[in-house]
Amino acid sequence: MVKFEEAMMRKFRDIFVCRRCKSKLRAPSLKVSQGKIVCRKCGFTRLRPKRKK
Predict the structure, then answer these.
(1) How many CB atoms lie within 10 A of CB 17?
(2) By the 8 A CB rule, do 14 and 7 touch?
(3) With the C-alpha atoms ordered 2, 8, 9, 10, is the resulting torsion angle positive or negative?
(4) Residue 47 to residue 22: CA distance in whole angstroms
(5) CB distance 38 to 45 below 8 Å
(6) CA distances from 13 to 4, 6, 38, 42 (A)
(7) What span, in angstroms and rounded, lies between the C-alpha atoms of 47 and 41?
(8) Measured between alpha carbons, how far is 37 from 7 in angstroms, rounded to an integer?
């Protein structure tokens, strides 16, 4: 299957998943690494990038 760069950027760039409640949110990666972004649902600060399948 051919992977388009534009689609990959749209689906995976700057999308993070909360490690506690598994909700997705879009945020700049620099702010996530600094711990300034918190989950909307539970308030947890530890986020991981969305996995590429």
Answers:
(1) 16
(2) no
(3) positive
(4) 9
(5) yes
(6) 13, 10, 18, 23
(7) 13
(8) 25
- Measured CA to CA, the distance from residue 5 to residue 30 in angstroms comes to 22
pLDDT at 3 (0 to 100): 80
Contact 44, 21 (CB under 8 A): yes
Q: Given the structure tokens 């760069």, which residue do they identify? A: 5
Token representation of residue 35: 């711990």
Give CA 18 to chain center in angstroms: 8
The per-residue pLDDT string of the chain (53 residues; one tens digit each, 9 = 90 and over) reads 678 899 888 899 999 999 999 999 999 999 999 999 999 999 999 999 999 87
